[in-house]
Every structure is written in C-alpha cells, then in structure tokens.
Amino acid sequence: MDENIVTIKDLHIGYRTFGGHVKVLNGVNLYVKPGEKVSIVGETGCGKTTTVKAILRILARQAVVTGGEIIFKGEQVLKMNKSQLQHLRGTGVSMIFQDPTSSLNPVFTIGQQMSAVIRYSGHAGATKSKIQEELAIKALQETAMPDPERILQSYPFQLSGGMRQRVSIAMALSTPREMVIADEPTTNLDVTIQDQVLRILKQRVEEKNTSLILITHSLGVARETTDRIYVMYAGNMVETAPTTELFREQYHPYTRALVDCIPRLSGGGVAEGIGGRIPNYLDPPPGCRFAPRCPKAFDRCWQEKPEYVNVGSSHQVACFLYDQSTGDE
Amino acid sequence: MKRLIKRLASYILVLFGLSILVFIIGRVLPGDPARQALGPRAPEATVEALKKEMNLDKPIVVQYGLWLKDAVQGDLGNSLLSRRPVTQDIIQYLPATIEIVILAGILMAVGGILLGILATKYSHTWFDGFVRVLSYLGIVAPAFVWAIIFILVFGYSLPILPTTGRLSLGIAPPPTITRMFTADYLLSGNFAGFKDAFMHLILPAISLMLGGMAQAARMTRTTMMDNSDKDYVLANKAYGVSENRTLFKYLLKPSMIPTVSVLAVDIAALFGNAFLVEQLFNYPGLSRYGMQAMLNKDLFAISGVVITLGIIVMVVNIIVDLIVTYLDPRVRLMGGSE
Fold it and tell me: B240 CA to chain A: closest CA distance, Å?
C-alpha cells in the first residue's frame, strides 16, 4: 500500500461558479509507484489538470475538495499545514507547466528563477548563491542546453519556446524529487520540438528514477513516454492499464473510441470520432458520466456509478459491461 | 543610452514649446503689466519707461528672441513684484517646495505601493476593503480639501503638528547651504532645528500626496491581482517558494511598471497641487511665489516658474524612464516599444 509515491482515493473536487457548484472530479482513483511513468489522457476539460493541481494543493481559490484523500508517501496531503506543504512542494513533487511563456517570470533571468526554486529545495547549501548556480548549470547541461552560463543570464523572452520548456524541465529536476508532474508540456510547442522535449523529459526522469505524471490529450505522446496510462473522462478515471496492454485491448467504450480515433497508415481512413460532448458539470448524469455518449449503455449505467473492475493484472476498468460481482443475475 | 539621448532631445523641444506658449499667453491676455506694477497713480512717462525696459514696446517675436537669448544664459528677467532677478527668486523659493515634494513623493510611492501589496495579500478581507475606501477618498477629495481638514484638525482640535510656515517662531533659520531647511539643519548638525523644519513639512506633504498615493495603491493592487493568476506565480507556489517572497519579489517586480508610470504623473501633479496647498499652509515655496506672480501678471516670473517646473517634470520623467528600464528587461534589451 505504502509502496506508492502517491495514491489518490475517491477524490471529489468542485468549483464555485456564478452558475452554482460544478462537480468536476467525481471520485478519482490513481496511484503512482516509485520510478513509474504514468500518463493521464483525456479531452480538454475532463479534470486532468485539477487532479494534479490537487496533489500540490495549488488549486484555484474557487475550488472545493468535497471528498476523498491524497496520500503522498504515507502522508495525507489534504491535511498538511503550510510548512508541510512547502516541504512537499520544495522537495517532494515538482511541476512543469503547459506554457513556458507564461510559467517563467518575464522580468527575472533564468538564473534568478532557478535559484529561487533551488533555495526551497532543502538541498545542502541551497541558500548559497554559488551552490544554486552550480546546481542550475548542471541541470541545464542535463537537458542538453548549449552554453548554460549564458542561459542563466538570459531572460525568458530571449529564448525559443523549446528552450524555455527545457529550462522548465531543468528547473523541475534541478534537485532530486520523488515525482514530477508535467501538464501537457508539449502542447504549445512546434511539432518538431515536441519530440525532442519529450525525449529529454523521459530521459531525465529515468536517470533520476523519478516518478512522472504526464498529462496529455494525445495517446501518441502517452504511448511514447509512459509505462501506464489512465484514461480520464468527465472527472473519472475510466480505465487504466500498462501502455502496451491498453493499446492491445481496450475495455471501456470511451477508450476504445479514443484509440479508434488515431489515424492509421494502413487504410481505414479517418475515424468518425465520438458523438456528443463532455457533460455539463453543473448537473452531470447521475450514473456513469459517459452513458449519454456510450453506444452500449443500458439501464444500470444511468442509475449507478461504476467502480473499478479488474480485467487484467494491472488493468482496471470502470464500466458495468465487465462488472459481474453485483447486478441482478 | 541612445534611448536616453533621444528622450533628452525630445524633452528639450518640449521645453522650448512650453516657453513659447507661456510667453505668448502672458502677453496676449488683457491688462498692462507695467501699469499694474507701478500702480494707478504713476505718471504715464514712468510706465512707458518700464515698458521699454521690459521690451514690451517691441513686436512679440522680437520680445521672445530677446528673452530666450538671456534665458539660455540663466537670466530670466526681473520680477516686477520683488524687483529682483527672477532667477534669484527661484533659487530662494524652489528648495522649500522641493523639500515638500520629495517628502510627499516618498510617502506617496512607499505608502501607495505598500498598501497595494497588502491589499493584494489580504484581498477580499476587511483590510482590502479599508484600502479601497481610503483610495476612493484620496481620489475624490483634492489636495486642498485635505489641507483644510488638516488645518482644522491639527490647528484647532489637536494641535500637535504645525500648520503654518517653514519654522516655528524663535527658531533661527539654518546656514544657507542647499536652502532646504531640513537638509541644512542636518548638515550643520542642528537636530532640534531639523525636527522643527521636518514637522512643518508633514501636513503639507500628506495633504499633497493622498490623491497620488490612493491611485498608486489601486494601480498596484489591480496589476498584482491580475498577475497573481499568471502561471509563473502558480509555478512559484508549486515549487514551494514562500508566499511573502513571491509577493514582494516575483509578483511585485512585473507588476510595478504601470504603478511607476502613474507615480511619474502624480509627482508632476504634486507641483501643481502645491499652488493651493502652499497658500493654505502659508508656506513660502515656489508654488506660492508662482501664484502671486500670476495674480499680479508678473510676466517674467510666470515664465521663470513655468520653465522651472517644466525642467523638474523632465527630470522626473527621465528618472522614471530609468526605473522602467530597470524593471522591464524587454525595454532594456530590445530598445523598447516606442
């Protein structure tokens, strides 16, 4: 149980809005093992970012956690006080944001910003500027940045998008961490740069044996980078399986539809996509949230929320089609 | 550096234009300055002689040319009121105003920015509301209203601060060094004198700066609140950077640029507002001198005061330019967006 770096159990998070309380996360379950690279795949607005922000407790002011727990190395994250949180953020988990243009401060040099991150890392001598500089240079070198000394003197606007995101990776891994969260780190990059940045990210976490949660809406990116995939739909993890297994066999109708959407070289043309769209979180369907779009939905799907069912050694799916335990027969 | 020189050149052009404007306005307005200066019973010949001395008998273009020729050599003509060279009057009165404006400027900038930061830190609490109300009060009530209120409160009800003049009765003025009394007392080691002179600055300075401080506080809070939603602030939080360090450093610096620009305008406005405030506090500064000059159509004094203020505004603008350049590396390294 405690071998996991992070475990999320039945997490419910909503947002207060003018329209009312929107129930976004609807009982999210997730775990990450040491050194494991996990991705969360899902449509825009399905709660991927909310889930990972909750791990660091950096949710927006309007967010309300209404249930569930987050356990980081045996400790309850949702019950941490300010200094425990600072410790978690400084030394345990770090995060790479989607858009390096906005996640780097425009008026401070890269060096100043990396020093600030290192200062709170608890690393030996982290408050000394010389050690900060050494660590920063080392981290930049490890992300294949040319001329790190010059980069440290530069401002973000003097670097290209790919370089900025490599700086973010260097920043996140400048001191040892248990886990790194990367929130769509390549979405805002040029296609040719995407691959390079992902490769560097993967290589870095493997070298340091750091766990990774990668958020992406691209199954291709997830397949290339991570060991295990969570498929998320409307605030639920609908299916999780090791990468190769998930691509071999999909159980949840949503996962299947997603995989079918990947264009193939060998004929078949472009897939149809999935009809309908993500439900309104103000008043979501009471049962399975995918039921309105699901081609195989039956009565029970509209009434109860499906729980995880084991369909393989570490392959789980939240769908009544595979749930033999309860039911009427 | 190149930018600075370019700026300087444009400011000198502006000054030139300003001098023409003031010169013409002073002379096309009705009223005979020479007659006004000499009084109604002065013989016509004396008035004519004074007009001749002031070059008022010549065409306006020639008048301006003659004035400019002297002005660039530091001779701004003679005041009709004090019967002394205007330059000498300015040297006497300007330091008193500078003293007030420096104090007001410091209070305005520090107070405004600090209130803005705190209102951000405690946003949506009673403190934020308090700063908001204070800001509205500062913005709606002009400086002279505050001056009157302060004089009433501190002159009658609660006499703890002086409300008139530069020094209390019986205190000897300091030796003339910079002509700023507080500085001169300090330089001559007279701390009792310094305290007295400083006390006399407090009320005029505060009534002058409240409006600007209110604006700066609002501007700081608004920009900081906007920026606090940016990813880099969230990233700081995610990396465990302490809240205060983020607030006072990583959030403050990018948020300062609009505030600094507003403060620049407000510091210039301090000189304008000083016209009434100095009058109310009976404070012998340049603004009060300028006021007298205008009421008496003392042409050369008016030009002198306006040009002096123009130069000061120019200097303030240059300083602000330098600060913005420091704050925003994009301006510094890319030549800025003009």
Answer: 4
Give one DSSP letter per residue of A185-205, joined into a string: TTTTS-HHHHHHHHHHHHHHH
Q: Is residue A79 part of a domain?
A: yes
Q: Which residues of A touch B328 (CB under 8 A)?
A: 107
- Closest Cβ–Cβ partner in A90, A107, A109 for B239: A90
Q: From chain A, pick out residues whose CB is under 8 angstroms from the CB of B235.
A: 95, 97, 103-104
**Measured CA angle at A177 (ends A175, A178), to 5 deg:** 165
DSSP state letter for B123: T
Give the residues of chain A that fall short of pLDDT 70.
Answer: 1-2, 265-273, 324-329
Q: How many contacts (CB atoms, under 8 Å) link A and B? A: 74
Q: How distant is the Cα of A278 from the closest Cα of chain B, in angstroms?
A: 26
DSSP for A54-91, written as a single string: HHHT---TTEEEEEEEEEETTEEGGG--HHHHHHIIII
Domain that holds residue A54: 6-322
**From CA A102, how far away is CA A114, in angstroms rounded?**
15
- Cα angle A63-A68-A69, degrees, rounded to a multiple of 5: 100
CB atoms within 10 A of CB B299: 25
Domain boundaries, given as residue ranges, for chain B = 2-71, 86-334
- Judge whether A306 lies within some domain: yes
B124, closest residue in chain A (CA to CA): A61
Indicate the number of domains in chain A.
1
Task: Name the pLDDT band for B6 (thresholds 50, 70, 90).
Answer: confident
Find the CATH number of the domain harbouring A120.
Answer: 3.40.50.300
Alpha helices, H only, chain A: 48-56, 82-87, 100-103, 110-119, 129-142, 148-153, 161-172, 191-208, 219-225, 243-248, 253-260, 299-303
| Facing B330 at nearest CB: one of A94, A103, A157 | A157
Over residues B43-98, the pLDDT tens digits come to: 888 888 888 888 888 888 888 888 888 888 888 888 888 888 999 999 999 999 99
What pLDDT is stored for residue A115 in this prediction? Answer: 92
Residues 6+ apart with CB under 8 A from B250: A105, A108, A113, A116, B232, B233, B236, B241
Is B2 a residue whose pLDDT tops 60? yes
CATH topology of domain B86-334: MetI-like fold (1.10.3720)
